[in-house]
Design brief:
Elements: E1 2-6, H1 10-22, E2 26-30, H2 33-42, E3 47-51, H3 59-68, E4 75-79, H4 84-92, E5 97-100, H5 105-117, E6 126-129, E7 132-135, E8 140-143, E9 146-147, H6 152-163, E10 169-170, H7 171-178, H8 189-201, E11 209-212, E12 216-219
Parallel strand pairs: 1-2, 1-3, 3-4, 4-5
Antiparallel strand pairs: 6-7, 7-8, 8-9, 10-12, 11-12
Length: 221
């Protein structure tokens, strides 16, 4: 899953980014409100960590504008303010949760997990295609009821393919969703992970993951 942090304190943003990446998330960092809003609007994210006090455009305004455009990603507000009125303003703007700085990293991670466990509009917690099943509440993938031993990144790629089954996904789309935007877009990392997934799925004849020549990949329903 992919998360964006919009936080002008680059040291804090980097600290949170590393912690989330250790848990298997792909994480992008943006350091001002206007740039963050543009990236959220046109990127493919599963959750936003949004500071209130931002240069250019504050987090409250960013959140209000995103909700006005029906962008309903889970949003966690971060702020150094602890007054009740500030909490109310953050939640009234459309945020799903609110965390006051300084915060414990474990608490932030717990809140991220809780929000990502919420059922999504287009898909529930369990994704099924053919005899492959993914349980996003437990981060478990199975084939014909037998557990698949996947790395966190392999799981992320498989989850993205299955969530968009029968849709052709380009290599760039997979790269942008499962890795952060600083990754070398000319790398063959996506092909390498597809190869690993096919090996673990015993997918010798593209029964599950089909190559669409010159475009990318799709998961067969």
């Amino acid at each position: 899953m992919r998360i964006i942090i919009v936080e002008d304190n680059q040291k804090l943003a980097g600290y949170v980014k590393k912690a989330l990446e250790r848990k298997g998330y792909a994480v992008d960092c943006v350091y001002d409100g206007e740039s963050g809003e543009r990236r959220i609007e046109f990127g493919e994210y599963d959750l936003v960590i949004l500071d209130i006090m931002l240069p250019g455009k504050d987090g409250i305004a960013v959140c209000c504008d995103l909700r006005a455009r029906n962008i309903n990603l889970p949003i966690i507000m971060l702020t150094a303010k602890g007054e009740l009125d500030d909490k109310v303003s953050g939640l009234d703007s459309g945020a799903d949760d609110y965390l006051i700085k300084p915060f414990e990293l474990d608490e932030l991670l717990a809140r991220v997990r809780a929000l990502l466990r919420r059922p999504k509009e287009k898909s529930g917690e369990v994704l099924i295609a053919q005899d492959i099943s993914i349980d996003n509440a437990k981060y478990v993938a199975t084939k014909s009821g037998k557990l698949l031993s996947l790395t966190l990144k392999e799981y992320a790629v498989l989850e993205y393919l299955m969530r968009n089954k029968e849709q052709v996904l380009t290599r760039d789309q997979i790269l942008e969703h499962c890795w952060d935007f600083a990754f070398d877009s000319f790398s063959n990392i996506v092909d390498a992970y597809i190869k690993q997934l096919r090996k673990k799925l015993n997918d010798k004849n593209e029964k599950y993951i089909k190559t669409v020549r010159g475009v990318g990949y799709k998961f067969q329903a």
